[in-house]
Design a protein that fits this description.
Elements: E1 5-9, E2 15-19, H1 32-39, E3 46-48, E4 55-57, H2 62-68, H3 70-74, H4 77-86, H5 90-95, E5 98-103, E6 118-132, E7 135-150, E8 156-166
Parallel strand pairs: 2-6, 4-8
Antiparallel strand pairs: 1-2, 3-4, 5-6, 6-7, 7-8
Helix pairs in contact: 1-2
């Protein structure tokens, strides 16, 4: 799996994952099955959040939830493209995550897979905006929330990436 991803600092010293290639693109919509297949490459991996030192596992359920959640089905346009391409930066998005707000599990359907509750971490990434074909005009920066479940095996698993919002400040220059 070839990835063109890096971590940089913005002008305020905050980390941003830069995804240099938009490998999931199309005029009619996102091929979510291709994204799901891509995400399967991460299953079984463990990444560490630098700020909190939490280990985050990538479980077998992650590709299905990431591509098939109610949140994902509602996405349109640039935000759908951003979520699809954010898949390339999963390790780095976890690494630079901040926060870690806790919520109790309140749904019976998640009794086993989130027995010890949920955590929400914040992260950021940038995607290229192409001027004409292959020339990059700028990078749009997005804020995301990483949803992490604390399961009955006492491990934390990345569950989904939601609340994708384009930042309206200054975009990154190429």
């Amino acid at each position: 799996m070839n990835r063109n991803v890096s971590i940089i600092k913005d002008v305020d010293g905050n980390d941003i994952v830069v995804i240099n290639d938009a490998i999931f693109k199309g005029r009619r919509g996102i091929a979510w099955n291709e994204v799901k297949e891509y995400l399967k490459n991460f299953v079984g991996d463990v990444y560490r959040i630098t700020e909190s030192d939490n280990e985050i596992n990538i479980g077998a359920d992650f590709p299905n939830e990431y591509t098939g959640s109610v949140y994902t089905y509602k996405l349109k346009g640039a935000v759908a493209k951003a979520k699809a391409n954010a898949a390339q930066g999963i390790p780095e998005l976890v690494e630079i995550a901040t926060g870690g707000g806790f919520r109790e599990n309140n749904k019976n359907k998640h009794y086993r897979d989130a027995m010890f509750g949920w955590y929400r971490f914040d992260s950021r990434f940038a995607m290229p905006v192409y001027l004409d074909g292959d020339n990059i005009e700028r990078y749009n920066v997005f804020h995301v929330s990483l949803i992490v479940r604390h399961s009955e095996d006492d491990k934390m698993y990345l569950y989904d990436i939601i609340d994708i919002k384009k930042e309206t400040g200054n975009p990154l220059e190429p």
